[in-house]
Amino acid sequence: MTEDYLHFIWKNKRIPKFDFQLKEYQILTIIDVGEYNEHESGPDFKFGAIQFEGIKFYGHIEMHVKSSDWYKHNHHLDRAYDNVILHVVYENDKEVIQNGFKIPVIELKEIIDDKHYGYYISKKLNKATFPCANELPNLDPFHFEYMKIKALEDKLQAKVKLIGSSEEVSLSEVLYQFMGLAFGTAINSTSFRLVLDKVPYKSLLKLNSSKRYQLVLSESGILQSSTSLLSKSQNHWNYKGTRPQNFPTVRVRQFAMLASQFDFEINFIDNCSVELINCFRSKIEEVWTDNINGVKNLSTSFTNHLIINAIVPFIWYVGEFKKDENFQSKAMDILTLIPPEKNRITRLWKQENIIIKNAFDSQSLIALHRFYCCHKKCLSCGVGKKILQK
Question: Could you give the angle at the alpha carbon of 102 between the alpha carbons of 96 and 105, nearest 5°?
Fold first, then answer.
């Protein structure tokens, strides 16, 4: 048995039941298998949900071939595993205690489909990143382009849902939140969310720029965490998987600088797409005009990242808020004017000879992979359905 096979059947919900009787005779029900943590350190599946002894628990899920692997991998020494609510294993050979609590464990040994496991090993089903790749050249491009748009809309709606909507929250506050989350990127977005909760935009309005800067820094905890390697390993900021220019110590200071100087008034959103982009770039440059704190300037590529991951979702949000589709069309248009991202997912698409001209292409393809290909949702995808109908 391999751990990656356990990941595969869990991610794709290929387990025959979701109610399990534990050794202590309690019933444990799987409510949500969670999100597969493919690239970051920490538990294998994040944000899962179970019901145990009549109570719902929300947190992370870890998987091993044997439950004793928990100790072999030194998870008991890592605080990132303190929020694990469920241990899923092929063989339960050892009780696991973490942070003083016994973690519920379910054993899959008796319910694994041996025939499917053999097929998986021989065909390597988990390697089929894009199951339809071989058929794409024979497909009318209309269907692929349609799904790119739909997937991108799904991605933008997910970002809007993450922020939430309320008439009591100003659009300036919403822009502030989108900007903060974008500074966190995927790896540290949760940590930046904690900072945004501690330092809401309205609290900054009462302070001068110097105090704004210091408040964001102090509430982030980054000043304390940068003093030693030990504290780095114990705080909620992730360093693993980030390059030095993206270290939390760099990005938090840059965001603190932005929060202290940036004009979050939204009068620029009525400009045409080109003028809006130019206006935003000018606003960013103005922030660093008087850089008394010596904070590293934002690179052009990171400014593009902010346009893609903060300004575009914000414009989409405004369209939702005002019920004006013109803003949503503008959000899409802005992406066509920004260079494409280069990452693991875009490289995978390029290997399939998919042309990526701009950020609209890269963002839509990233979304298509995340919401459909990753979960093998071929029957929910216009491309997959069209191919299967042949």
Answer: 65
Q: How many angstroms separate the CA atoms of 110 and 383, rounded?
A: 37
- Kindly state whether residues 350 and 246 are assigned to the same domain: yes
CA angle 356, 311, 280 (to 5 degrees): 105
Residues 71 and 220 in one domain: no
Backbone angles phi and psi of 165, in degrees to 5? -135, 140
Would you state the structure tokens that stand for residue 334, as one six-digit string?
């802005």
In total, how many domains does the chain have? 2
Contact 264, 176 (CB under 8 A): yes
Q: Could you read off the pLDDT of 313-364 as tens digits, one per residue?
A: 999 999 999 999 999 999 999 999 999 999 999 999 999 999 999 999 999 9
Q: Which of 127, 153, 183 is the last residue of a domain?
A: 127
Separation CA 307–CA 326 (nearest Å): 18
**Total-model pTM:** 0.68
374's torsion region: left (phi>0), alpha (psi -120 to 50) or beta?
Answer: alpha
* Domain contains 383: no
